[in-house]
Each structure stands twice: as C-alpha cells, then as structure tokens.
Amino acid sequence: MNQDIALGKWKQIVGKAKVLWGDLTDNDLEKVEGNAERLAGLIQEKYGKTLEEAKKEVKHFFDQNS
C-alpha cells in the first residue's frame, strides 16, 4: 500500500488501529491522517520500540488493511 493512504481509507481503518495500539488516543490517530512515518513515530514514542520495529508494525498493519 502507498505509504500515505487516502484520508477516507484511514478513517475506515482507524478503529482497527485503536484496537492494535490501544495507547494511542483518538487525537493521536486523527493527527496521523494515514501517514505511515507519523504513525511509526507515535508507536515508537508510546511503546518504547525502536523506529525500525515500529515501521515494521505499521507496514504490516497497512498491508493487512489495504
């Protein structure tokens, strides 16, 4: 999937993101707007993961929901 998904598609899958990464707030996910880099950064920050780990999770998430 394209690194930056369309905002409409993001709104459809944001609920799945909330389930997967429960520490992310609605506000966090709204700011991401489907941008993979921003999402990976938030996951890194909230979960103490490396950026590489966070990017892998995000890629897998987008691949599953494309």
Layout of helices and strands, plus pairs?
Blueprint: H1 7-20, H2 26-32, H3 36-47, H4 51-64
Helix pairs in contact: 2-3, 3-4
Overview of this protein structure:
With 66 residues, the chain is mainly alpha-helical. The chain has one domain (7-64): Protein Yjbj, Chain: A (Orthogonal Bundle). It is built from four helices and no strands. The chain has helices at 7-20, 26-32, 36-47, 51-64. The mean pLDDT is 89.
Text of the CATH class: Mainly Alpha
Number of strands: 0
Number of helices: 4
Anisotropy-based shape? globular
Cα gyration radius (Å):
10 Å
- Quick one: biggest sheet? none
Q: Strand fraction band? A: under 5%
**Low-confidence runs of at least 5 consecutive residues:** none
Number of spatially distinct domains: 1
Report the span from N to C terminus: 6 Å
Instruction: Look up the CATH topology.
Output: Protein Yjbj, Chain: A
Summed over residues and divided by their number, the pLDDT gives a mean of: 89
Q: What's the order of the H and E elements?
A: HHHH
Query: What's the CATH architecture name?
Result: Orthogonal Bundle
The CATH homologous superfamily is called YjbJ
Look at the helices and sheets and give the structural class: mainly alpha
Percentage of residues assigned to helices: over 70%
Considering the chains and any ligands shown, give keywords for the structure:
mainly alpha, 71% helix, 66 residues, globular, 4 helices, Protein Yjbj, Chain: A, 0% strand, single chain
Short description:
With about 70 residues, this protein is mainly alpha-helical. The chain contains 4 helices and no strands. The protein is globular.
